[in-house]
């Protein structure tokens, strides 16, 4: 089997895609345990599990595994497929790309072990200890080298807008990661948290968002068979996201111990992010013109368009939450996890699902096993996500107003938490649906891969 | 198991037959070829102008940004709560307790600090004692209970 795949151009993409699916399942299991702990705080508190599965330990495992195991690996797999296509050449350093696949898995494994054992740097989304951060930076440097070298050796004169987004992301990610993971050693107090949030927000905005938008721009013309609506809009979107996103960190410390000018410097660019987001959406809707009927039959397109719409909703919430007034209510409440799941699961995981459904048939030479499973995956994910987000948003608003009226601590806090029980239930049901949906997703892809292998073997033997 | 296998093979062949006919489904409508397909030729780019409503939005946002930069002021997001111990005492406790050592419905509050330690007092305020209701049950929050405790300790 190894010898057969060694000549496979798509080997790096396959390694990244297949491993990302494993992390998707494990990461979501951790998420479910967290959700159950909201209902029964003593869930799985048994023997050594009460230490290993402590809320404070598995929450970062859940976020890191899904951000860097699932979504990042899915994105890298997609980059390794899409960039050569757009450049009309082959991936540079294919052996290094294959190695990077194993290396990245190693990082996720050791990172999760370290967090399970209780080592953390408390940087949100960067909890892994410093020595693992160094491995991540080396990995990202390899990734950037492979991608930039492929782009530099391209046989296509024009740089399609997706490549702009990918190149931007690959420049920003190493910078972000280095800046974000140092201050826990170098700084303390408020400046430390300013840098933490610079990292925490931008890892979403300048890595997941920009790669995701690049993938939307790549897939949409194929799935709709329409030309991309406006090149100019896509460039406005690119340059404004590059300009405004990095300023977003301070809005996480809104109404906190930071000077007013810094709050304003965080709020204004957050609201101005409406410019790139609406530019992307206008482009998506413009490209969709006359092809909306295709959404009904084409599940990958359905995922892509729904992802784009979730992106829009997230980015209407974002500027709203960054304002002082709304921030004073929703900050620290359950609203926040609802808002955080919307871009990461709703928008960009949907794009990744769409990419996988689109790319996998091309790299295993077999059509997706079942359309019905794809549809099930879509509807369970969407219903689950909507239950999850609406329950957390509602709970968050209740909590926020209760806290303003003095229920931040003491007995009233406990009373308020007990009153939130129904919302925690809805959240858990939603999370379970989301998890079950991914099982359908993986079964479908697994069947496709198996069928692909079988048909390839028969082709070879007959030849 | 065998049945499953057969089924999937049948499925497989069916799908191969359908293959060229599949509408809409972009992933299924290109014949699988084992070479790197030349795909970027398929991407066409339009050059539509920026829609008018976006231009208007951009201008409004720019105006808002300058306005906000100049005019925004910090916000005190915590509602002021009456945490004046004496007032709360007169509203919620005075019905049963005198500020002297005279017995009313309950004991007088003078020198209550000698009778109970601060910790015991906290317990009584939070849980009630005998027929006395707990203060949280009277709708007082943690800040207010603290203020009451501090006030009666001065008596």
UniProtKB/TrEMBL annotation, chain A:
Domain Cytochrome oxidase subunit I profile: 195-463
GO molecular function: cytochrome-c oxidase activity; heme binding
Residues annotated as transmembrane: 21-40, 60-82, 102-122, 128-151, 163-184, 196-220, 229-247, 267-288, 300-320, 340-360, 380-404, 424-446
Annotated keywords: Electron transport, Membrane, Respiratory chain, Transmembrane, Transmembrane helix, Transport
Entry-linked InterPro entries: Cyt_c_oxase-like_su1_dom, Cyt_c_oxase-like_su1_sf, Cyt_C_Oxase_1
Highest rank taxon of the organism: Bacteria
UniProt xrefs under Gene3D superfamilies: Cytochrome c oxidase-like, subunit I domain
A GO cellular component annotation in the UniProt record: membrane
GO BP: aerobic respiration; electron transport coupled proton transport; respiratory electron transport chain
Pfam families: COX1 (PF00115)
Keyword Transport: yes
Record bears the keyword Transmembrane: yes
Protein name in the entry: Cytochrome oxidase subunit I profile domain-containing protein
Organism: Anaerobacillus arseniciselenatis
Lineage: Bacteria, Bacillati, Bacillota, Bacilli, Bacillales
Automatic annotation (TrEMBL), chain B:
Composition bias type Basic and acidic residues, residue spans: 1-27
Gene3D superfamilies: Cytochrome c-like domain (1.10.760.10)
Region annotation (Disordered) ranges: 1-38
Keywords annotated in UniProt: Electron transport, Heme, Iron, Membrane, Metal-binding, Transmembrane, Transmembrane helix, Transport
UniProt superkingdom: Bacteria
Keyword Transmembrane: yes
UniProt protein name: Cytochrome c domain-containing protein
Organism: Anaerobacillus arseniciselenatis
Lineage: Bacteria, Bacillati, Bacillota, Bacilli, Bacillales
């Amino acid at each position: 089997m190894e010898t057969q795949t060694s000549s496979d151009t798509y080997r790096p993409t396959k390694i990244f895609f297949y491993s990302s699916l494993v992390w998707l399942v494990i990461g979501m299991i951790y998420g479910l345990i967290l959700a159950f702990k909201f209902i029964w705080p003593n869930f799985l508190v048994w023997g050594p599990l009460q230490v290993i599965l402590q809320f404070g330990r598995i929450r970062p495992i859940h976020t890191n595994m899904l951000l860097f195991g699932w979504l990042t690996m899915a994105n890298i797999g997609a980059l390794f497929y899409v960039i050569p296509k757009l450049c009309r050449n082959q991936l540079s350093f294919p052996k290094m790309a294959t190695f990077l696949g194993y290396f990245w898995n190693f990082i996720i494994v050791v990172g999760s072990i370290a967090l399970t054992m209780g080592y953390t740097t408390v940087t949100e989304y960067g909890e892994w200890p410093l020595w693992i951060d160094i491995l991540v930076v080396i990995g990202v440097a390899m990734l950037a080298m492979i991608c930039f070298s492929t782009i530099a050796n391209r046989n296509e004169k024009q740089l399609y807008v997706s490549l702009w987004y990918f190149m931007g992301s690959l420049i920003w990610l190493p910078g972000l990661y280095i800046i974000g993971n140092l201050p826990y050693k170098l700084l303390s107090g408020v400046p430390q948290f300013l840098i933490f949030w610079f990292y925490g927000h931008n890892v979403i905005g300048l890595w997941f968002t920009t790669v995701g938008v690049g993938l939307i721009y790549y897939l949409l013309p194929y799935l709709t068979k329409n030309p991309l609506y406006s090149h100019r809009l896509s460039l406005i979107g690119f340059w404004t996201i590059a300009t405004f996103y990095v300023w977003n960190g301070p809005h996480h410390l809104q109404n906190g111990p930071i000077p007013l000018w810094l709050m304003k410097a965080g709020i204004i660019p957050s609201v101005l992010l409406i410019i790139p987001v609406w530019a992307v959406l206008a482009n998506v809707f413009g490209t969709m013109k006359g092809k909306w009927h295709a959404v009904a039959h084409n599940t990958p397109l359905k995922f892509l368009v729904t992802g784009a719409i979730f992106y829009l909703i997230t980015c209407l919430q974002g500027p709203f939450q960054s304002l002082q007034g709304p921030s004073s209510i929703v900050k620290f409440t359950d609203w926040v996890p609802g808002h955080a799941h919307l871009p990461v699961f709703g928008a960009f995981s949907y794009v990744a699902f769409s990419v996988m459904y689109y790319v996998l048939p091309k790299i295993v030479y077999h059509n997706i096993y079942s359309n019905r499973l794809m549809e099930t995956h879509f509807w369970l994910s969407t219903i689950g996500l909507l239950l999850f987000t609406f329950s957390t948003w509602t709970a968050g608003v209740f909590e926020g107003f209760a806290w303003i009226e003095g229920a931040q601590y003491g007995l009233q806090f406990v009373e308020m938490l007990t009153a939130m029980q129904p919302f925690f239930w809805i959240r858990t049901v939603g999370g379970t649906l989301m998890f079950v949906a991914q099982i359908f997703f993986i079964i479908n892809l697994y069947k496709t891969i198996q069928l692909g292998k079988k048909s390839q073997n028969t082709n070879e033997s007959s030849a | 198991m065998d049945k499953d296998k057969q089924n999937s093979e049948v499925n497989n062949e069916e799908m191969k037959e359908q293959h060229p006919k599949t509408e809409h489904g972009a992933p299924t409508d290109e014949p699988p070829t084992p070479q790197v397909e030349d795909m970027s030729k398929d991407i066409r780019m339009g050059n539509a102008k920026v829609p008018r409503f976006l231009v208007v939005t951009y201008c409004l946002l720019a105006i808002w940004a300058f306005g906000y930069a100049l005019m925004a002021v910090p916000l005190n997001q915590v509602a002021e709560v009456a945490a004046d111990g004496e007032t709360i005492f007169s509203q919620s406790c005075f019905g049963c307790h005198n500020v002297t050592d005279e017995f009313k419905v309950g004991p007088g509050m003078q020198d209550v600090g000698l009778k109970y330690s601060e910790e015991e007092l906290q317990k009584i305020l939070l849980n009630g004692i005998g027929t006395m209701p707990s203060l949280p049950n009277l709708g007082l929050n943690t800040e207010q209970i603290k203020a009451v405790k501090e006030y009666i300790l001065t008596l």
